[in-house]
Amino acid sequence: MASNMSAIFASFQQHINVEQDLREEIRQVNKDIDQKAREIQTTLQIIHQEGGLTKIADCCALTRKLFLDVKTGFSKLAVLIPEDQYYRFHDHWRFTMQRLAFLASLTVYLESGQLAMIEDVAQIVGVTSKREDGFHIDLEDYLMGLLQLASELARFAVNSVTNGDYKRPLHVSQFVAELNSGFRLLNLKNDGLRKRFDALKYDVKKIEEIVYDLSIRGLKSEEKSEDKSGASSTS
Amino acid sequence: MSHGQRGRRGGGNRPWRPQIGERGKNVVEGLNENSPVIQSFRKFASELDAKHDRHERLVKQSRDVTIESKRIIFLLHSIDKESKREAVLAEAQTRIASLNTTIFKEIAKELQGQDQYQYLRAVSPGIQEYIEAVTFMFYIRDGKLPHWDELQPSLSYGEEGQINLIPIEFFLGVGDLTGELMRCCIQSLGTGSTKSCYEACSFVRDIYIGFMSVGHTGHREFQRKLNVLKQSLTKMEMACYTLAVRGNEMPKHMLADVFSTGEVNDGADEGFCD
């Protein structure tokens, strides 16, 4: 084999070795972050449980504490990634990031009833919100997280009724409707985000049916002047 | 959207889809256009649009690179006698140089300040085809495979950005090169230049050994290229065998015919579909 050829392949091999070592490190760090994310997710499941509604504040406080570990994790990850190579390794943490965007926005919703902006989410998980500023959260990952949030809130609406809170679904309905109209402003390509967005209408529908059930039975507290039917047309 | 769908509902065989109900409609209509949520979604929309637009522009530029690279390769194949060699090589080099200073420069500008890996999928086909053309030119001129670092300077534009040659992309291009070399080898049977036939064969064998020596790259495409490479090599080795066994029995130009009948259509590695 020509010497120049083997030199080229040797340097390619070396390049691959370096890359794979780096990927291995990234996998390790990401594993820890993902572990934390699962812990947070489990913690937040309390909102669906009987009597869980009263524990929301404590639960959020606990979640916030767990997010600190996530922050540490991401600061470890950030130093591993060379500048302008975020997307070379993005696949390693993409799903973790989406899940964390979901969990952070759920926490913010539970605390304040507001939609967490991308800056808020970035702050909670300990990354930046813009690529130029360093290790960031990708916009599409954030949006994916919000879509997961809508599904979780649909479930939350069901369970809060079961647990005797009839006001919650109204608020959730308002919140998700706003989210939905926000998403409609986006020109989505035929990609993963688009597919996930297509599922949003089912969540919207589910929440509306709950509101319908409540209003038809007079369980809805009439603080706002809703029109008398307020019914879903999906009969 | 909900208005339009309402009218068509129930008529026809469209699959049933949930509608935004009355209440949802009220909410949507009652939305404050200036709410922070809507405003930030407007910002997201323009951010996503900018990204998609850039992606589309890059895909288009990459396609232009592919077309020109294929033409350069075709041009290089037209070397059938020594006298044409210099002229063709000169033209190929000029065209490669003009690619570097036109389309690639635009791509570099487009990528400036961006994360190249984010748009890798858009530019990768063009870059691979370009690598194929350039390495083919190098092979014909020097009989050597260049190191990717040797190609990097011509894709760097200083202040105006640069296109980083990613080694894996380079080798995917080299994988395609072997297909061209096989064609070159069979063709040179026809022109009776047995020496270049053997040369091409041993060059490809070296590349094959190189590819084999590299362990798992974590790249799916890589494995596929290796298989195609092996097929090309087998074909070339058979050509050399025929040459050795029957080379003295018949006129040279007939050998090519012997071979081309046995050659199966292998357009698969070319990606003409794009």
From TrEMBL, chain A:
UniProt keyword terms in alphabetical order: Cytoplasm, DNA-binding, Endonuclease, Hydrolase, Magnesium, Metal-binding, Nuclease, Nucleus, RNA-binding
A GO cellular-component term linked to this record: cytoplasm
GO MF, one example: RNA binding
SUPFAM superfamilies: Translin
Signal peptide: none
Pfam name, any one: Translin
Annotated Mg(2+) binding sites: E152
GO biological process: RNA metabolic process
Subcellular location: Cytoplasm; Nucleus
Function: Exhibits both single-stranded and double-stranded endoribonuclease activity. May act as an activator of RNA-induced silencing complex (RISC) by facilitating endonucleolytic cleavage of the siRNA passenger strand.
Family: Belongs to the translin family.
Subunit and partners: Ring-shaped heterooctamer of six TSN and two TSNAX subunits, DNA/RNA binding occurs inside the ring.
PANTHER family assigned: TRANSLIN AND TRANSLIN ASSOCIATED PROTEIN X
Protein name listed in UniProt: Translin
Upper taxonomic lineage: Eukaryota, Metazoa, Ecdysozoa, Arthropoda, Hexapoda
Gene this chain is encoded by: LOC117653832
UniProtKB/TrEMBL annotation, chain B:
Domain of life: Eukaryota
GO molecular function: metal ion binding; sequence-specific DNA binding
GO cellular component, one term: nucleus
Region of interest (Disordered), residue spans: 1-22
Signal peptide interval: none
Protein location: Cytoplasm; Nucleus
Gene3D superfamilies in the cross-refs: Translin, domain 1 (1.20.58.190), Translin, domain 2 (1.20.58.200)
Keyword terms: Cytoplasm, Magnesium, Metal-binding, Nucleus
Major localization class: cytoplasm
Compositional bias (Basic residues): 1-11
Coiled coil: none
One Pfam family here: Translin
ATP-binding keyword on record: no
Binding site for Mg(2+): E132, E180
PANTHER family: TRANSLIN AND TRANSLIN ASSOCIATED PROTEIN X
Family: Belongs to the translin family.
UniProt protein name: Translin-associated protein X
Species: Thrips palmi
Name of the gene: LOC117650537
